[in-house]
C-alpha cells in the first residue's frame, strides 16, 4: 500500500485506479446492452472499456497492468468512458505523468505572510491554512474554538486528515463523520498523486491505515477529491448545531497553501451561533490570560 506512492509503481497505481472505476460502472450506464447473464467481474470488462475508447483490448490491458504509458488524448477518452469527474480526471493525468507528479524535496512549510494577515483580520469567521498533506499551518481564534485548540497538538501531528481519524471528539463534532472522513481520504489520495515520494505523506497513510480500518478501506477505493467548496453540519459542544458553508482559496505565492473559511448566511441561526462562539472564545482567552499573570 505504501509503495503505491513511490515513483517505481506510479503506473501500477494508475492501473488500480482504472480497475476500481471500471468496476463501478454497469453496461447500461455507458450505453451497452445488458446480456442478462452472470458477469465474471464487477462492472465493465476491459474489452468493453477498450471498445468504447476506440483502442485495442491489448492496449488497455497493458495500461491497467502498469506496463505502458498512455497519451493525453487516450487518457482524455478513457476519462470520458469511465465517467470520471474533474477531480478524478486530474488525478488520472497526474498518475500518467501528463502533469507534474514529481517535485524537489520541500522543506517544512510556513504560512504565507499574506494569508497570516487575512487570518488575523478574520475575527468573526473561522479559518485555517492547510499545506501539503492537509498539514495545518495556521488558524485564527474562532477556528480553534470551532474545531480544537490546534496549539495543543504537536506540530508533527498537526494534520487535518489525521485529526479526523485520531481525535475521538471529531466523531461527535461532525454530524456526518463518515462522509467528512471519506472526503479527507480522497483529498490525501489526490496529494499522493502530486507527491508520490513525500516521506511524511507515506508515513501518514501508513499510520492511519494501521490505526483505522475505515481509512484502509476507503484508501483502497481510490476515490479522489480536491479542496474546493462544500457544506458541513457540526454539533458543537458549546453552541449546538452549526450548518456551515466552507470555501477554499489557494495562495498564488504557494499553490500548496489553501485558506479554508467556514461561513453562514447573515441572519441564519448558525450565523448568530458563530457570534456567540466568538464571544465565548474571547472570554476563554481573557480567563486564560488572567490566570497566567
Task: Give an overview of the whole structure.
The structure is a single chain. This protein is of the alpha+beta class and 293 residues long. 48% of the residues lie in helices and 13% in strands. It contains 13 helices and 5 strands. A 5-stranded antiparallel β-sheet has the order 2-1-5-4-3. β3 (229-236) and β4 form a beta hairpin. Mean pLDDT is 86; it is low at 1-8 and 100-105.
SSE layout and pairing:
Blueprint: H1 10-23, H2 46-53, H3 57-64, H4 72-81, H5 86-95, H6 113-121, E1 127-130, E2 136-139, H7 141-146, H8 160-166, H9 168-173, H10 177-194, H11 199-211, H12 213-220, E3 229-236, E4 240-251, E5 254-263, H13 269-292
Antiparallel strand pairs: 1-2, 1-5, 3-4, 4-5
Helix pairs in contact: 2-3, 2-4, 4-5, 8-10, 11-12
Q: Briefly, what is this?
A:
Helix content is 48%, strand content 13%.
List keywords for this structure.
293 residues, alpha+beta, five-stranded antiparallel β-sheet, 13 helices, 5 strands, 48% helix, disordered N terminus
Q: Number of DSSP strands?
A: 5
Count the helices. How many? 13
CA-based gyration radius:
22 Å
Give the termini distance in whole angstroms.
Answer: 51 Å
Q: How would you describe the oligomerization state of the chains in this entry?
A: single chain
Strand count, sense and closure of the main sheet? 5 strands, antiparallel
Overall average residue pLDDT: 86
Strand fraction: 5-15%
Q: Residue ranges: pLDDT <50 for 5 or more in a row? A: 1-8, 100-105
Structural class label: alpha+beta
Tertiary shape:
elongated
Query: Helical proportion?
Result: 40-55%
Strand order of the largest sheet: 2-1-5-4-3
- Order of SSEs: HHHHHHEEHHHHHHEEEH
Amino acid at each position: 500500500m505504501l509503495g503505491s506512492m513511490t515513483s517505481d509503481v506510479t503506473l501500477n497505481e494508475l492501473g488500480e485506479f482504472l480497475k476500481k472505476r471500471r468496476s463501478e460502472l454497469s453496461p447500461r450506464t455507458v450505453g451497452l446492452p445488458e446480456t442478462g447473464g452472470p458477469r465474471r467481474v464487477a462492472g465493465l470488462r476491459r474489452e468493453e472499456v477498450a471498445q468504447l475508447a476506440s483502442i485495442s483490448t491489448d492496449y488497455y490491458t497493458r495500461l491497467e497492468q502498469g506496463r505502458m504509458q498512455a497519451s493525453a488524448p487516450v487518457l482524455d477518452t478513457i476519462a470520458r468512458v469511465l465517467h470520471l469527474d474533474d477531480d478524478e480526471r486530474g488525478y488520472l493525468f497526474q498518475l500518467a505523468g501528463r502533469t507534474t507528479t514529481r517535485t524537489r524535496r520541500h522543506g517544512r512549510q510556513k504560512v504565507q505572510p499574506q494569508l497570516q494577515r487575512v487570518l488575523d483580520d478574520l475575527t468573526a469567521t473561522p479559518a485555517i491554512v492547510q499545506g501539503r498533506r492537509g498539514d495545518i499551518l495556521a488558524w485564527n481564534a474562532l477556528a480553534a474554538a470551532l474545531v480544537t485548540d490546534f496549539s495543543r497538538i504537536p506540530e508533527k501531528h498537526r494534520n487535518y486528515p489525521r485529526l479526523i481519524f485520531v481525535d475521538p471528539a471529531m466523531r461527535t463534532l461532525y454530524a456526518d463523520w463518515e462522509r467528512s472522513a471519506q472526503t479527507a481520504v480522497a483529498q490525501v489520495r489526490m496529494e499522493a498523486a502530486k507527491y508520490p515520494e513525500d516521506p511524511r505523506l507515506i508515513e501518514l497513510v501508513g499510520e492511519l491505515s494501521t490505526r483505522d480500518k475505515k481509512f484502509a478501506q476507503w484508501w483502497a477505493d481510490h476515490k479522489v477529491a480536491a479542496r474546493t467548496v462544500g457544506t458541513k453540519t457540526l454539533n458543537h459542544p458549546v453552541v449546538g448545531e452549526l450548518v456551515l458553508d466552507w470555501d477554499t482559496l489557494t495562495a498564488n505565492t504557494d499553490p500548496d497553501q489553501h485558506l479554508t473559511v467556514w461561513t453562514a448566511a447573515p441572519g441564519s441561526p448558525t450565523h448568530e451561533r458563530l457570534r456567540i462562539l466568538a464571544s465565548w472564545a474571547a472570554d476563554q482567552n481573557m480567563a486564560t490570560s488572567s490566570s497566567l499573570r
